[in-house]
Amino acid sequence: MDETNHALQRIARGTGIIFIGTVISMLFGFLSVVVIARFFSRAEYGVFSLALTILSVALVIATMGFQNSLPREVAFYREEEASRIGSLILTALTIVSLTSLTVTAFLVSGSVYIAQAFNEERLIYALKIVSLALPFSALTATFIAISQGFGRVREKVYFQNFLYPILWFSLVGICVLLKLEFYYVFIAYVMAQAITLLFLISDIFRIKLIKLGSVDLKLGKELIVFSIPLMFTGIAGFIMTWTDTLMLGYYKTSEVVGLYNSASPLAKLLPIFLTSAGFIYPPLATALYAQGKVEELKRVYQVLTKWLFLATLPLFAMMFLFPEATIGFFFGAKYLEASKSLQILALGFMFHVLLGLNGLSLVVIKESKFVMYSTTVSAILNVILNAVLIPVYSIEGAAVATAVSYLVTNVLNSLRLYQKVKVQPFSWNYMKLLAVSFILLRIIKGLNLRVPSIWYAVPVLAVFLGVYAILVLLSGSIDKEDVELLLAVEKKMGVDLGMIKRVLRRFV
What we know:
Largest sheet: none
Radius of gyration: 23 Å
Structural class: mainly alpha
Strand content: under 5%
């Protein structure tokens, strides 16, 4: 088996595991949001959204980019200086503990001023409670980044994808069933984060995954210097993702924030496959690049991007073609005003999927500073667009600002990636596949179909996908790597896919 197929099959296997975990995580996380949106007022849901958004900013600062740097650093030291692994891990955990406690103290003491900035008094108690979750969530993220450096997905799937979201959903359900006051939702959030960390630490030391060394100040300094650009990238990325919510809270009301956050979490489901592949892709891509196998890296990137687009297309088609039915199904009729915003956001996130894992690929080739620059430029553009568009166009303006910022950062990253190593996603077969997709979507969109519920949209979507599959085959958009992957799946599952293989081989 050549390097390309081997890497693709490893990514596919790892992505499958992470995808299952991510689906479960998103499902229960999304259900928790839906329960809060349905059983509390739109204004209360808006307060919840603002509090969690602010906490997300704090988490990026508290972890200092370690979530992205530690997997690489742990993997590097395992190969080059295994004796320093224990010191690296303890140093990282110590730094994150100190920074997370400091940021928590800042949030608690500054909650009044933050609430005044958003003209929302209820944010005071919300931030004072929810900020207590920060040390737990920061340490959980750090432990999982360490396990990723060991090439493991178990800790992420079991604890971050399974345990936490199920706990969170269960505790939210208890709050609703017992008809508790709204602030108990934030207490439930803190409890879910604390319990998750407790079980994660217990399991890591039970299986003896890590051995702690001593705190190494020099190593800590090196880690911080390497991680700081990634921290700023995370902050800028956060700005692109959450500025719409924060600035809606500033310019409008909590009710408007709640309305917008019916569309936003739905659209954020679109990169689910991209995110899953992104967990397993970096170490494999790094290995190819370190060995000078740039052509193999390019091929892996192209085929993987095509797979990710194909996997995401059905979800995008549902949101883009039938936004009213999608929002109505999950959030109810009172949120239908956000349908246009869902379409706009879906376009932005789908463009991100279309260009593939460009940012992670730049990190692989040691271009993390450019990722920081491109993300910062897009974040600044996002703030400017939100400031201009929200006062006039409200939630639609926020959606446009977010979609445009994602487009800009992905274009910049893709151009840089091509400039440095000539890696880009657009193989001839991928371009044919994209053409078929856009033409079919345009045709169905032009029919102006009005479906009363999601159950009427599903048959239309099924027909769309059936016609799409036929056109993909007829256009010859199947690569030999697609067949190789199918053979690997067949072998792994022990099933006979003879008919499918024969059909695919006719068109390769």
